[in-house]
């Protein structure tokens, strides 16, 4: 499943360049095709480079005509399979080795000798200059294709040339990174490729312990504050000289009766 948020990009090595809209399926619904198109924004394709020359265009046209004539297979706007061009150049390489072997009066039954004559040489093929190193490996040219999010069509944005080992951008073209990112995603995801760099727990153990300890400290500080305020108020009340003890308070009614009784005693004394 391809990423559509731009956090990851995928690179597909494809031997052919047969479709400029690989996300599209004629029998699928518009909704399904649009979802596929969105996903393909995160996909880059690497394929064998197709030369832009008159010779190759003529060769491609001839292949398409033969395909229609002998096999009933119409190509349409699709490019000729790169296996066809590779086979064409392989035949040229073999014929060069055979001619040299015969010119030297050597036997074609010596397969090792014929093969060695195909090594460490360069010749002109339908795909351009074909170079074989001293070990018999070909220096292959590749193209990097990216989908234009506006048109939904894959286009060549850069080429890699095997002989010079150079990666050359196509003028006016650039990679459209998914998720409207201005550059490529990180080489390594945040949690690693297998998620091992991130904990499976919602809250790690150290977070839980720290939270509990912090809560205990906060509660202790609040309780200490209230206890301190309580004793502070008690101390302030105890230092007040106007404070009257409860037993020193005399009821008002009793006081009236006592005063009345005193007045009566005083009257009897006078009388």
In short:
This protein has six helices and seven strands, in the order E-H-E-H-H-H-E-E-E-E-E-H-H. With 271 residues, the protein is an alpha+beta fold. The strands form two sheets. Strands 1-2-5-6-7 form a five-stranded mixed β-sheet, with no helix packed on it. Strands 3-4 form a two-stranded antiparallel ribbon.
Structural commentary:
There is one protein chain. This protein is α+β, with helices and mostly antiparallel strands and 271 residues long. It is built from 6 helices and 7 strands, in the order E-H-E-H-H-H-E-E-E-E-E-H-H. The strands form 2 sheets. The chain has a 5-stranded mixed sheet, with no helix packed on it. Strand 6 and strand 7 form a beta hairpin.
User: H/E series, N to C?
Assistant: EHEHHHEEEEEHH
Our count of helices gives 6
Distance between termini? 124 Å
Poorly predicted parts: 265-270
Q: Structural class of the secondary structure composition?
A: alpha+beta
Sheet-strand content, in percent, reads: 5-15%
Please state the CA-atom Rg, rounded to the nearest Å.
Answer: 47 Å
Q: Overall pLDDT, averaged?
A: 82
Helix content: 40-55%
Query: Largest sheet, described in full?
Result: 5 strands, mixed
Query: What gross morphology would you assign?
Result: elongated
Spatial sequence of strands, sheet with the most strands: 1-2-5-6-7
Strands, count: 7
């Amino acid at each position: 499943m391809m990423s559509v948020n731009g956090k990851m990009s995928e690179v597909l090595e494809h031997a052919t360049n047969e479709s400029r809209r690989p996300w599209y399926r004629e029998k699928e619904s518009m909704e399904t095709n649009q979802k596929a198109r969105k996903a393909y924004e995160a996909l880059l394709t690497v394929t064998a480079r197709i030369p832009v020359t008159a010779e190759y265009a003529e060769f491609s046209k001839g292949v398409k005509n033969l395909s229609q004539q002998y096999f009933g297979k119409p190509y349409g706007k699709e490019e000729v399979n790169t296996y066809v061009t590779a086979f064409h150049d392989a035949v040229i390489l073999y014929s060069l080795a055979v001619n040299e072997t015969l010119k030297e009066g050597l036997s074609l039954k010596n397969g090792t000798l014929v093969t060695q004559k195909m090594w460490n040489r360069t010749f002109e093929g339908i795909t351009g200059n074909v170079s074989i190193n001293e070990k018999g490996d070909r220096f292959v040219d590749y193209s990097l294709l990216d989908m234009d999010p506006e048109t939904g069509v894959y286009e060549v944005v850069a080429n890699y040339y095997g002989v010079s080992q150079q990666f050359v951008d196509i003028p006016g073209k650039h990679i459209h990174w998914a998720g409207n990112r201005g550059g490529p995603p990180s080489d390594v995801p945040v949690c690693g490729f297998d998620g091992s760099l991130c904990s499976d727990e919602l809250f790690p153990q150290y977070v839980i312990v720290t939270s509990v300890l912090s809560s205990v400290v906060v509660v202790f500080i609040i309780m200490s504050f209230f206890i301190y305020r309580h004793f502070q108020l008690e101390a302030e009340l105890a230092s007040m000289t106007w404070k009257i003890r409860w037993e020193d308070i005399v009821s008002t009614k009793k006081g009236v009766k006592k005063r009345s009784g005193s007045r009566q005693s005083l009257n009897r004394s006078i009388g």
